[in-house]
Amino acid sequence: MSLTGGNRNDVTQLIPLPDKIPAVSGAAGRPRRRPDMLFADRDYDHDKYRRLLWKRGIRPAIAQRGQPHGSRLGIFRWVVERTISWLHGFRRLRIRWERRDDIHEAFLGLATCLITHRHVQRLC
Predict the structure, then answer these.
(1) Count of structural domains within the chain
(2) Tell me: the pLDDT tens digits for 36-63?
(3) Which three-class secondary structure string do you get for the chain?
(4) Closest CA to 3 of 85, 13, 70
(5) How many whole angstroms from its chain centre is CA 111?
(6) What is this structure's pTM?
(7) Is the domain of 66 the same as that of 26?
(8) Are 83 and 124 within one domain?
(9) Terminal Cα-to-Cα distance of the chain (whole angstroms)
């Protein structure tokens, strides 16, 4: 995970993001290091970013500007927006008061554990 300043443009983190993904083990063989596909909204619609993702072996699924909303990318985006909403339920994470990024990341980890615990409790 990479923390940036609050007023930075999100597109600056589009290329470093896949490089920060840890290895994911699954079936027999070498663990996967990067996703097959990356979903993004219209803010990331530029040929430069598509080319950079293709070079990394990642298929970009980026909504195009000026096109009607029919790409069905919103289905996947809703999951991200919902998760951010859950994290904002913790007042300390809604506005970043911590100056040190390691402390902020620790609170993010605690919030993630609490959210997961609540969901597991509902299943049991």
Answers:
(1) 2
(2) 888 887 778 888 888 888 998 888 888 7
(3) CCCCCCCCCHHHHCCHHHHCCCCECCCCCCCECCCCEEEECHHHCCHHHHHHHHHCCCEEEECCCCCCCCCCCHHHHHHHHHHHHHHHCCHHHHCCCCCCHHHHHHHHHHHHHHHHHHHHHHHC
(4) 13
(5) 16
(6) 0.55
(7) yes
(8) yes
(9) 31
